[in-house]
Amino acid sequence: MGQPNLDFSSWSIERLETHMAGLQRGQELERIRLEAQSRVYRSVLPRADRLRWAKLSLAANRRFHGDGPWEQARMRSQEFELRTWVIERLGADADPDWNPEALATDTLATLSLEPGRAELVAAGWRDLPKEKIGDLRRHKNLTAHINRLMPCLPPGPIKDQLARWASVRQYLP
Question: Can you tell me the distance from the alpha carbon of 152 to that of 7, in angstroms, rounded to the nearest whole number?
Answer without folding.
Answer: 36
